[in-house]
């Protein structure tokens, strides 16, 4: 099986490292051939758990065959492609290899526009390709438990609130954040697409909102030319009742906070995504249930890769295919349209 990586920055290398680790653990087959289209700036650095190490040649380090151009990459005729280049290249890259019949793993976000997405969906459907978008949060056992709780008979949802505030310069300490895709509009950056995991989480738990209202923009002194902070109000309707869901995202907060909560008619649920724990309180404010999950973050990426290979092997749809991933993109673009109004 030939696997091509389009880009080997931090995410591309994480996925490659995990595949090779799972091979050693006999959880994935040995007969995988790796090919990589690598940017010049990535050819001599290995990135592991947020740390950079200089190497003579990244291709030798990973036992990977380098390709130096798109023409050469397409000649490989890969069975599967990991689209791990900048967001602005995701859909164009996926289209190129979908036409060749390659299965696709596309790192989040699915794209920075919807241009070409309908054509991609058409090709994928006609060729019966397997697709998956990198929303590893869905593989967190705690999130699975939360989905069960939200869907259980806890009473009507009154409101919900989601927050993910983090500090962009601390994400990749080995490089100048202002030159990375997250800080650049031309590469599909900005906090809305960069932290789209949280939008996907909202859609996974609640579906699509009926209306989106948002404010925000480039509000901090960070060196980026795209929005760094947004606050959105998502309106949902269940059984004839409308309830609000607030969403706050920021790249400008030095102390990371990632949390969400649900207010039900007869209980309240608090979730700390950083600590990977939740607490459920009853009608009288009493603690009904609490849990801390010990899952390590990289285990989510491993679970994601295992699910992808399972789907490829038995030819079944993945849990997060491009049709499913379009939902979070739809909400993200609604937010972006709102903040562009500068109300």
From TrEMBL:
Question: A GO molecular function for this record?
Answer: nucleotide binding
Q: Which residues form a coiled coil?
A: none
Q: Which residues form the GFO/IDH/MocA-like oxidoreductase domain?
A: 146-285
**Gene3D superfamilies given for it?**
Dihydrodipicolinate Reductase, domain 2 (3.30.360.10), NAD(P)-binding Rossmann-like Domain (3.40.50.720)
User: What InterPro entries would the database entry show?
Assistant: Gfo/Idh/MocA-like_OxRdtase_N, Gfo/Idh/MocA_Oxidoreductases, GFO_IDH_MocA-like_dom, NAD(P)-bd_dom_sf
Annotated Gfo/Idh/MocA-like oxidoreductase N-terminal domain ranges read 2-135
Q: What is the recorded name of this protein?
A: Gfo/Idh/MocA-like oxidoreductase N-terminal domain-containing protein
Look up and give the organism this protein is from: Candidatus Wildermuthbacteria bacterium RIFCSPLOWO2_02_FULL_47_9c
């Amino acid at each position: 099986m030939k696997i091509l990586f389009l880009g080997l920055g931090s995410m591309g290398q994480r996925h490659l490292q995990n595949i090779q680790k799972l091979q050693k653990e006999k959880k994935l087959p040995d007969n995988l051939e790796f090919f990589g289209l690598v940017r010049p700036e990535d050819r001599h650095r290995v990135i592991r758990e947020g740390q950079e190490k200089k190497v003579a040649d990244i291709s030798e380090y990973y036992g990977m065959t380098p390709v130096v151009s798109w023409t050469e990459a397409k000649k490989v005729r890969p069975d599967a492609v990991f689209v791990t280049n900048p967001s602005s290249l995701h859909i164009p890259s996926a289209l190129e290899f979908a036409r060749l019949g390659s299965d696709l793993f596309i790192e989040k976000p699915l794209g920075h526009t919807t241009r070409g997405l309908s054509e991609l969906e058409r090709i994928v459907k006609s060729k019966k390709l397997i697709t998956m978008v990198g929303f590893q949060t869905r593989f967190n056992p705690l999130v699975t438990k939360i989905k069960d709780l939200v869907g259980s008979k806890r009473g009507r949802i009154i409101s919900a609130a989601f927050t993910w505030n983090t500090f962009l310069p601390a994400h990749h300490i080995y490089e100048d954040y202002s030159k990375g895709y997250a800080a650049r509009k031309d590469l599909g950056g900005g906090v809305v697409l960069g932290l789209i995991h949280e939008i996907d989480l909202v859609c996974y738990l609640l579906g699509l909102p009926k209306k989106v209202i948002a404010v925000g923009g480039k509000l901090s002194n960070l060196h980026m030319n795209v929005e760094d902070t947004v606050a959105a109000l998502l309106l949902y309707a269940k059984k004839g009742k409308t309830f609000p869901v607030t969403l706050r995202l920021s790249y400008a907060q030095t102390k990371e906070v990632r949390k969400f909560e649900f207010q039900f008619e007869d209980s309240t649920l608090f979730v700390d995504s950083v600590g990977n724990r939740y607490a459920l309180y009853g009608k009288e404010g009493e603690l009904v249930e609490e849990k801390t999950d010990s899952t390590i973050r990289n285990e989510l990426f491993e679970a994601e890769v295992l699910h992808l290979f399972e789907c490829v092997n038995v030819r079944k749809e993945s849990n997060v295919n491009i049709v499913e991933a379009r939902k979070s993109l739809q909400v993200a673009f609604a937010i972006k349209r709102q903040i562009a109004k500068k109300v």
